[in-house]
């Protein structure tokens, strides 16, 4: 991570750093990428969109759903004096233009008159998370992906690849959009960039600089994994059905359109429990840490287990109780 000029925050596949990156502070923030899955019957998007969530949220704060590890590391970064000013000094308008032209020059802007079903999915999700809806672009690509960019003075935007849309049900696609909105709401790109600045700076210290930098990198990856868990929670707050979010993770792990109707969320959760059990022994714990320590994202089975547990937690149920019931069209 430390040697990457435009540090990446991606969900599964590591994208081209010029395509998806996290050059941040309040000048340029880029957050995440994601690929997912769907049934044949839900590929076309018209005006009708997925069911409205049972409740909507007012005055929802990022810390209301932020994962504890994400929260701890964000507090640490906020406490470092001068980091914000340093980030601004290291970033310039050239990077802004690269990101802007690279990501929207060959994409289709979604609006009320262009792919209106996708537009409404984004608007719904943004309203539920109490965040301004960014622009949404669809880009031709065989690699299922989605990512978010925010540039100073310009409206943030989300890019989704056509292959991702082909693989998703409406509910799953909205959960992915909510995940991306979670990165925006939590300012993850800002803190990722600052953490990378610290790591780069550590490498310049003679003698023990390399050791310090490697330690910082380990902490950075740990925070990155926690940030993804936070945004999975944002997806659940919009979907309000853990099976939708877990289905997304299952399809990321091994789904495709031709087998979508045969995939079983409960079986995937049982697989997640099996992984947890297999890694609970001393040897299993060591192997699990070795497997995940250099990953920027948790394993899909671990994310599925986390979202299943949070969906049954008092914290999540308390958020739902705070929510305002949404009236169905029949009730209006």
Automatic annotation (TrEMBL):
InterPro entries (alphabetical): Peptidase_M48 (IPR001915)
Entry keyword set: Hydrolase, Metal-binding, Metalloprotease, Protease, Zinc
Domain Peptidase M48 residue range list: 117-310
Keyword Metal-binding attributed: yes
GO molecular function, one term: metal ion binding
Top-level taxon of the source organism: Eukaryota
Family: Belongs to the peptidase M48 family.
Note describing how the cofactor binds: Binds 1 zinc ion per subunit.
Pfam families: Peptidase_M48 (PF01435)
Gene Ontology BP terms: proteolysis
Name this polypeptide is given: Peptidase M48 domain-containing protein
Cofactor section: Zn(2+)
């Amino acid at each position: 991570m430390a040697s990457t000029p435009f540090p990446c925050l991606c969900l599964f596949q590591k994208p081209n750093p010029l395509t998806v990156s996290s050059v941040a502070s309040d000048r340029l923030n880029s957050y995440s990428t994601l690929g997912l899955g769907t049934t044949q019957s839900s590929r076309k998007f018209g005006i009708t969109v997925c069911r409205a969530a049972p409740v909507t949220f007012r005055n929802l704060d990022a810390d209301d759903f932020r994962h504890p590890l994400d929260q701890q590391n964000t507090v640490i970064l906020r406490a470092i004096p001068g980091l914000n000013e340093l980030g601004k000094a290291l970033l310039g308008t050239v990077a802004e233009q690269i990101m802007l032209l690279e990501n929207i020059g060959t994409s289709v802007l979604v609006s009320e008159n262009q792919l209106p079903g996708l537009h409404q999915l984004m608007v719904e999700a943004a309203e539920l998370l109490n965040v301004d809806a960014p622009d949404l672009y669809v880009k031709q690509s065989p690699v299922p992906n989605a990512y978010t960019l925010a540039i100073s003075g310009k409206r943030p935007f989300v890019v989704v690849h056509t292959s991702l849309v082909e693989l998703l049900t409406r509910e799953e696609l909205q959960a992915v959009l909510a995940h991306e909105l979670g990165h925006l709401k939590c300012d993850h790109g800002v803190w990722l960039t600052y953490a990378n600045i610290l790591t780069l700076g550590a490498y310049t210290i003679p003698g023990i600089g390399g050791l310090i930098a490697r330690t910082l990198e380990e902490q950075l990856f740990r925070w990155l994994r926690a940030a993804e868990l936070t945004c999975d929670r944002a997806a659940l707050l919009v979907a309000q059905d853990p099976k939708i979010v877990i289905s997304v993770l299952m399809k990321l792990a091994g789904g495709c359109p031709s087998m979508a109707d045969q995939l079983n969320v409960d079986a995937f959760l049982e697989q997640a429990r099996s992984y947890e059990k297999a890694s609970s022994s001393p040897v299993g714990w060591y192997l699990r840490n070795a497997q995940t320590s250099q990953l920027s994202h948790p394993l899909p089975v671990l994310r599925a287990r986390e979202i299943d547990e949070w969906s049954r937690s008092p914290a999540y149920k308390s958020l739902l109780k705070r929510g305002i019931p949404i009236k169905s069209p029949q009730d209006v």
